[in-house]
Amino acid sequence: MNPKIISWARERAGLSIEDLAVKMGRAPEEIRSWEKGDEVPSYPVLEQLAYKYLKVTLAVFFFPEPPEIEDPIRNFRRLSNHELTRLSSDTRQKIRLAQAYQESLAELLEGFHKEKVISRDLSPREMAPPEFAVIARKYFGIDLNQQFSFRSSESAFKAWRHSLEDASIFTFKDSFEDRFISGFSLLDGEYPVIFINNSNAFSRQLFTLIHELGHILYGVSGVTDFDESYINFMANSDRHLEIQCNKFASHFLVPEESFTEYIRHYKTAGPESISEIADKYSVSREVILRRLLDHNVVTKEYYETKANQWNRDYFGRGKKGRGGGDFYLTRLAYLGEGYTKIAFENYHRGRLTETELGYHLNINSKNLAKFQGYLR
Length: 376
Hints:
Layout: H1 3-12, H2 17-24, H3 28-36, H4 43-53, H5 81-85, H6 89-108, H7 118-121, H8 129-140, H9 144-149, H10 153-166, E1 170-174, E2 181-186, E3 193-197, H11 202-217, E4 222-225, H12 236-253, H13 256-269, H14 273-281, H15 285-294, H16 300-316, H17 327-335, H18 337-348, H19 354-361, H20 368-372
Parallel strand pairs: 1-3
Antiparallel strand pairs: 2-3, 2-4
Helix pairs in contact: 2-3, 8-12, 10-11, 11-12, 14-15, 15-16, 18-19
């Protein structure tokens, strides 16, 4: 094993020796001894370092020199320094985990026929976001009748997620330490991915999903911040693009063709009707308020006041603990059924060993048989 690689991978993950020691439950002196080459971690510990803590492949620890791997953070050059500098090491690791899932997709989907490829089939060209949103909705195949039949924002999120998977856009989830980050997307010619903060309400997750779809369709990697004030710190061209993605997402989820009657309902029933309208579309209250702003039914000041109030309420509640729960259902929610099925299909075709399957699914190989039982 090359001890220099541990230092390289740790620094790439944005972790100090002390940070890594806390995460692993080990003494900092032990990790220093690994990096100096005075001691060598056991093979199981090296596996944990690679896949759990530093998000690199195990093989990299045996390279003669640190590899030239592009830092995925560079994909977000369009973000202001204000936004980049406040990303924690946890969020940076999740961005690298998303990059690892992209690499897995390239391997798992090799030789698979894909009927829909988003980069080939759909382009905004010179269209305005509302017009482009209409075309995109038709492409993904969920009409208003189906949208209104969703029992909850959770079922709506799952339906749209499956529809995106059919178009070769895979969504992964995890719980973020940075609560202000709703999600992000990583661009790729064949395998763009979206990563969602699972700590948010499903209505917020749904808007993030479609907002990041907008980033992909407009050809940029993006981050969705819970507080939209980050847009003010962006360069003019980037700010314009971010506003386009917001407008695309809100028109995608609340189409113009149906919203007119709900504007009349709002004018009759008042602000109390916002939650009712939001439930009808399975979206957040902010999305409905944004659409009312589009129609000049509410003022920009009112929109910003209410949005800030709802944000303060959200952050004031504190982070909810999600202890317990079913480990396998959580893993399936984080990975998505589409990605998980493709990984198992590769395994049953003999293209992956059991150990390799475990690496792609980020799960111990001894748990794979039980995990497969959770797939529909």
